[in-house]
Specification:
Strand 16 and strand 17 form a beta hairpin. The model is unreliable at 121-134, 519-528 and 575-582 (pLDDT under 50). The chain has 19 helices and 28 strands. The radius of gyration is 41 Å and the shape is elongated. By secondary structure, it is of the alpha+beta class.
Length: 720
């Protein structure tokens, strides 16, 4: 049986396409598949071309050119049409281009291959609705989708260039790439691939008037394709010696155009000949457009990062010189806002008295305007502090300053309806005496400071406060004084550190307390006692990978910027690291003043005592202590005209500690036991103290008295 008969039996025809003569030879089966009489025939190219759908003809033309350039098989699916424009069948063509020298010495090719009917689509359908494309076209579209996705995800110029270098184009891969940028009248290489270091030397600073392809592309905005070295040498003889040493045989130079402006040029160089067919040029042009847009996005992003980094560095001061006996660490993390700047700030200010001040604040908002207001307010606070004003005076003046700015903005808003409304700021100002550890705190709507004691216990230190800055110009800010004992660490932070991750103030504080009281050596892998490590751990807990495991109840909450400052007074059992395995248990002590005008601070006194006894063995004793403190402080406010001073101290080893609580006032009247009736609303304080305390008493003083009680911790026995 002849080969032709075997091929006809499987509906496969043979054809020979002579490009030089423009004729096509078909066997009988090939002629039948093309809708012609089933007999061998030689037809002119135009007669065969009329049998193909025009779209498919364009596809196969590009595929054949690509196969000729690469020396590979040309494969495609083709729709065969009748004279009425209806699809008769779909065939698959596989052919091999063979190079052949013509009589005039030119190089041409001849295609020899097969066509075979395939099952798609069904005959009788309208050609225009049949979704059929060539294999190369599908691979091209898939490549462009992948390239567009990869370039869209690149966030820097270096990433864009890496993506461009890794692109694997369908059928023709450049082995050398270069991206040229324009600055004024100069052309330079901003990135390259496939070249050795230093190869870009001659191209790093080139005038746009230079006779070089990339320069001409930038001047004209039109692509230049050079399929052969002869084309390059003929068109650009002056710069051909520069390109000759790279041993490339084809080049494509394409403009990088964004919004009608040519921002540079892209070169793709090939070691294998490239004919740059329409399909190939289409791929290169599309990639050049995507590359230009990616480079523009990366340039804008890098400019924004450079701007915000410089802005942040100028607004976030360096902590001052070392302070004898104290150590300071600070962190700032801009988590909100697209420009990575916000209204949070901290500062350390040397004072004329020899002391220093720590300031932390938060201007409302997460944008550039908030950062601008923050910069002005920070300078104002530093100026007032440097003049020697006390903490309350510094915040009062700062509030008046910010209110003045807001007033000017209100005037602008009347003229410009688009102007934004005024903003306020919270602030915490601490004046520190490094010799005695005395701290004077003034607070304007800001979270209270927290103190880590020498045994690792962390207490939120309640302080008197006023309205946020800028709301009411003439606002008073009372001052709270307490002492940072040797070995204790104080933390100042903005609400972003507490609430980031969807937390509220309560759950966020519980998370931070666990970090402050935790083992920094185990968690961070650093030497215990290192203040910088503790600062990193705090930020890591709320902004790092571990924070995803402790999402708070407000998961849809917008993230806020973070600022944190740590101040440690050096001493035995320093609180800036983890306690040792067998620590010496120093006394835990807290002190709180409850003024007549601030009865709401009684709840703060209860919370202080409960936090002081957070690891007490018997929870019922903790409840008893809280109840007695509440009764004693309330009695002072109800039966005297003065303030109540609460001092609570726990001493001893775990399980055997003694709690002593004293509440002092300025009245000389001693408490006495009463026997209230069932309906009485008071008179049970002494009775409760007798029932719940292990010991109690009243100590008269020169002015006033001190009522005290003691509780003795007993380790809870295991259940029988």
């Amino acid at each position: 049986m002849r080969t032709e008969d075997v091929l006809a039996a499987v509906a496969t025809g043979l054809w020979r396409w002579d490009n030089a003569s423009g004729t096509v030879s078909l066997d009988g089966e090939a002629a039948r598949l093309l809708g012609l009489p089933a007999e061998p025939v030689v037809l002119p190219e135009v007669a065969v071309r009329s049998r193909f759908h025009p779209v498919d003809w364009n596809e196969i033309n590009g595929i054949v050119n690509l196969a000729v350039a690469e020396g590979t098989l040309a494969e495609a699916r083709l729709r065969i049409m009748d004279v009425d424009g209806r699809v008769l069948r779909t065939v698959r063509s596989r052919s091999k281009p063979l190079e052949r020298w013509s009589a005039d010495g030119s190089l041409d090719y001849e295609l020899i291959g097969t066509i075979q009917e395939i099952a798609e689509p069904q005959p009788g359908t309208t050609a225009v609705h049949t979704p059929i494309t060539g294999d190369w076209r599908r691979s091209r579209e898939a490549f462009l989708l992948d390239a567009g996705r990869a370039l869209a995800e690149a966030r820097s110029t270096a990433e864009v260039l890496r993506v461009a270098a890794s692109l694997s184009m369908p059928g023709f891969n450049p082995d050398g790439l270069a991206v040229f940028g324009v600055a004024g009248d100069r052309l330079s290489v901003i990135g390259h691939h496939g070249h050795d270091a230093g190869d870009e030397g001659p191209f790093t600073d080139m005038l746009l008037e230079t006779d070089y392809p990339a320069a001409e592309v930038v001047r004209t905005g039109r692509a230049i394709y050079l399929p052969s070295p002869e084309d390059y040498k003929r068109r650009f003889p002056a710069t051909w010696p520069l390109a000759q040493r790279f041993d490339r045989v084809s080049w494509a130079f394409l403009p990088l155009i964004v919004a009608g402006r040519t921002m540079g040029a892209w070169m793709a160089a090939f070691k294998q000949p490239a004919s740059f067919s329409p399909d190939e040029r289409s791929v290169l042009t599309t990639v050049a457009r995507m590359l230009a847009q990616a480079l523009q996005r990366a340039g804008v992003a890098e400019s924004e990062r450079e701007l915000t980094t410089g802005l942040q560095r100028s607004m976030m001061p360096q902590l001052g010189p070392e302070i004898p006996g104290m150590r300071i660490a600070a962190r700032y993390v801009p988590t909100g806002g697209g420009l990575q700047v916000g209204g949070d700030w901290y500062d350390m200010i040397p004072l004329p008295s020899g002391r220093f001040a720590l300031v932390i604040g938060d201007v409302q908002g997460h944008d550039v305007r908030a950062a601008g207001l923050m910069g002005q307010l920070r300078i104002a606070v530093r100026a007032y502090a440097s003049e020697g004003h006390r903490p309350d005076a510094v915040l009062s003046r700062a509030s008046r300053f910010l209110a003045g700015l807001c007033a000017s903005q209100e005037s602008a808003a009347e003229e410009d309806p688009d102007a934004q409304s005024p903003r306020f700021a919270t602030c915490l100002y601490v004046e520190c005496d490094p010799e005695t550890g005395t701290l004077e705190v003034a607070r304007a709507g800001h979270p209270d400071p927290a103190v880590r004691m020498t045994d690792g216990t962390v207490l939120m230190r309640p302080t008197a406060g006023g309205l946020p800055l800028g709301i009411v110009p003439d606002t008073d800010y009372p001052t709270t004084r307490f002492t940072l004992e040797p070995g204790e660490t104080m933390m100042l932070c903005t609400d972003g550190l507490i609430e980031t991750g969807g937390h509220d103030l309560d759950t966020g504080w519980a998370r931070l307390r666990a970090v402050l009281e935790g083992d920094t050596h185990e968690a961070g892998g650093h030497e215990p006692g290192h203040l910088e490590t503790l600062a990193d751990l705090l930020v890591q807990a709320v902004h790092g990978p571990s924070s995803h495991h402790t999402t708070g109840p407000l998961a849809d909450r917008r993230e806020d910027d973070i600022a944190v400052v740590l101040l440690c007074r050096e001493g035995a059992g320093c609180g800036c690291g983890a306690p040792s395995a067998h620590p010496v248990r120093p006394a835990r002590r807290t002190m709180l003043t409850v003024a007549q005008a601030e009865p709401e601070r009684i709840s703060g006194a209860r919370r202080q005592v409960r936090e002081l006894l957070h690891d007490w063995a018997d929870e019922e004793q903790v409840d008893s202590a809280v109840l007695m403190v509440s009764e004693m402080v309330t009695n002072v406010l109800m039966h005297t005209d003065g303030d109540a001073l609460l001092v609570a101290e726990a001493v001893g080893e775990l399980g055997e500690r003694r709690l002593r609580v004293e509440v002092a006032d300025s009245s000389d009247e001693l408490p006495h036991k009463r026997h209230p009736g069932e309906m009485a609303s008071s008179g049970r304080g002494v009775l409760l103290t007798e029932m719940l305390a292990d010991a109690w008493g009243v100590d008269p003083r020169g002015e006033g008295k001190s009522i005290w009680f003691e509780l003795y911790e007993q380790s809870k026995q295991p259940d029988a």
